[in-house]
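In this supplementary section we document a worked example of the pipeline. Step one takes a protein sequence of length 379 as its only input; no multiple sequence alignment statistics are reported here. Step two produces a three-dimensional model, which step three serialises into C-alpha cells for compact storage. The input and output of this example are shown verbatim.
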Amino acid sequence: MVAGRGNGGGDSVRPPGLNARVLQRRHDPSLRLVRRDAVVPGPQVLDEAQQRVVDHRGGPLLVLAGPGTGKTTTVVEHVVSRVERDALPPESVLVLTFSRRAATELRERITLRLARTVREPVARTVHSYAFGLLRREAVLRGEPVPRLLSGAEQDLLVRDLLRGDLEEFAGAGWPERLLPALRTDGFARELRDLLQRAAERGVDPQRLRSLGRRHDRADWVAAAGFSEQYAGVTALRHPPALDPAELVRAAVDLLAGDPAVLERERAERAVVVVDEYQDSDPSQEALLVLLAGGGRDLVAVGDPDQSIYAFRGADLEGVRRFPERFRTAGGEPAPVVTLGTSRRCGPVLLQATRRVAARLGGAGGHRSLVACPPPEAGT
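The serialised model returned by step three reads:
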C-alpha cells in the first residue's frame, strides 16, 4: 500500500499502480471530448407587470422589484425587445449597474439571449462607463488618458499628505485635538471617505469650507484645505489620476460643460436601463439626468429595501424622488410599475419575510408580494 495525502490533510492509502491506471485512461484513444451544442434560451414566461416593463416605450419608467420578483429577467427581456422588436443596435442600449458581478451577469444573460456578438459590452458599471467616456474624449482631444486610483493608492496618498501636514506644516490648520489622530490609519480612511462623499454630492473645497464655518466645524474647514492639496497632487500626476468618486463627477462635468459631447453621447444612447438603482449616489443620479433626462427612454429598476451601500455613498432618496426628477416629455411624473410576484419564496417563507419588511418603515406598496403558484402536474 502507498501512503498519500487526503483532502482533510491526514494520511490515506491507495492501491499501488493507481496513478499508472489513471494515466493510461487519460491517453485511451477511444475516449474523446465532445462539445455540447449551445443552448440559446428562448423568451421567458412573464407576468402582467413584467410584460408592461418589457413593452414600455417613450419616456422614463421606475420599476420597483422586491426580492425574487424576476427583475433581472425583466431587464434582459426589455433589452432584447428593444434590439429585436425595435431593430435598435445593441450598442445603442446602455445598461448600467453598480457592481462588477451584477454587470457580468447581465452582460452574459443579454448576450446569450440575443445569440449574437456585439461591438462593446452591453452592460457595464457606472464607473466603467464614466471611465470609457473620459478616455474616449481624452484620446479625441490628444490629451493624456486619466488613470483610476486604486483604494490602496488613495490610502497611501492620504496618509503621506497627512504626515506632511503634521511634520512639515505644524498641523496645517487641523484642530489640536485631532493632531494625534493624523498618524492613524483609521483617521486616513475616515478622511478619504469624507472626500469621496463630498465629491459625489458636488461639494467642492470652497463649499466644504463654508459649511464648516457656518456649523462651527473646524475639522471640515481643515478637510477643505486638505481636499485642495489632494486634488492638486493627483492633477499633477502624469497621466492625471482620479478616484472612483472623482471619476463619475468628472464625467458629469464633461457632459455638462461641453454641449457637443453631450449631444453626441445622447445620440448614441437611444435607451438607458439602470439596474439596482437603490445603490446610486447623487453624482451618478446627475450623470443619469444628463444622459436620459428630459423625457428620454429610461428604465430604472430598484428596491428601497435592498439598499446596502449607504457607507459607500448610496442615497436611498434617489429611488423615492425618481418620478419627480425624471419626468415625461409632457411634464408628468415618471410612471411606476411594481413587480409583485415572488418566484423565489413559497407562501410560508414569503409571509415571514413580509412581516420583517413591514417593519422597515417608509412607503411599502412594493412589499405586497404574492408567491408564484406551483406548476401544474406534468409541467
